[in-house]
Amino acid sequence: MKTLCASPIDSSLVTRILVVSISIALSASWLMMGQAAIAAEPVSMNELLEQVKQGRGQDAAANKQRIEEFSSNKTQQVKRLQETVSSRVTEEEHSKSLELAFEENDKKITESENALNERLGDLKELFGVLQVAAAEASGQFESSLTHVQYPGRPEFATNLAQKLGTTGKLVSIEEIEQFWFELQREMIESGKTVKFEGKVITTDGEERDQSVTRVGLFNTVSNGKYLTFNAETGSLSELSRDPQTRYIATISGVESTNSGIVPFGLDVSRGQILSRLVRKANLQERIEQGGIIGYIILGLGAFALLIAIWRLLVLFFSSVAISGQTRKLDKPSKGNALGRVIQVYHNHPKADLETMELRLDEAVMKETPKFTRFLVFIKIIAVAAPLLGLLGTVTGMINTFQAITLFGTGDPQVMAGGISQALVTTVLGLVVAIPAVLLFSLASGRAKRLSQVLEEQAVGMIAEHSEKRTAVA
Prior knowledge:
Oligomer: single chain
Number of domains: 4
Number of helices: 14
Largest sheet: 5 strands, mixed, barrel
Low-confidence stretches: 1-11, 36-40
Strand order of the largest sheet: 1-2-3-4-5
Shape: elongated
Radius of gyration: 56 Å
């Protein structure tokens, strides 16, 4: 503690200060009088002497008043100095008493801590284990689906851990039992499927009270939809988009059944797999990723499919008609290809063998192109679709590498997304080409079979005509 020191006031110094102050005041008064005299009109010597006397009298009165004030202030300063010295002595005594009290209290605290540590013994290690367990349980309670049903548990576990971490406070047996009860309840709830009323945030952003079904600690569902749990806010909300239908179809069984075993799409990762399924692009989004080239490929595929269906129907009806005509060779009909070929045979009964053969070949050649009409377009589309898909992939890869050049490779997920979009056109090209090849093979096979039927019938008619010619000869 610093000590204040004061020295007695020197009276001769005060006298000197007063004399200097009076001299300065007189000099200022004489200067002002001189300036006033210069600025005023000229006066006589007697008048000037009279003014000097009056000014000296006023200055003397002012100086006397100043001396009285200085004397009064001197007394006050001495009094204040005495009060300060007295206060300093009192504070020094109080400081000494506080230091003694601090030392005594410090000794008592040390003795109390030593006594507490001796009495705790093995309990101190137990409290350390409880502190670690309570800290871990706090995070587990906060991220658990049971937090919606039983709020307040994370705060209880956090307060318990903080209390166990201080030596000034001891936990009670009731708090330890409560902590054990919460751990036991969490373990039991993890194996139960329960229904309860809770607040759910819908996809529209509204908060509604709905019946919620919780399946262990893995999933929650409500009104035929999966719910996601936000650990930060402790709220349930509907997914922005439903996963595949085969998973949604199992929700109704869980919600409507109170006992027994029912199939359910369980996410054992507690929402991680479900969130990835939601982010997975559906068929429409995949098609949109293909861009203009993808739509062109799909348009060509639709065109090839229409042609294939049309030609298969034509060939089917032609096959039916030709099959019926084979049972009525003596009654040719112009409504089918075989009937028209037979009609040529009947129109030239007296023609020689070579002429008949040429006429029947001509009739068959006229009918054969009708079977393969427009099938070449299916073949062209089957060849062009993969090439268009490859073109879309190349252009997509170019765009991806340009993005890498501009933004770098810091985010592999963005690169993977760009490459995935680029490969969509290749997939679309193959999806169109493979059915187109199959349809072309099917249609061309039927056309060849019908052409073979016409050729077989033509060869038979030539043989019959040859037999007739031989018999006549």
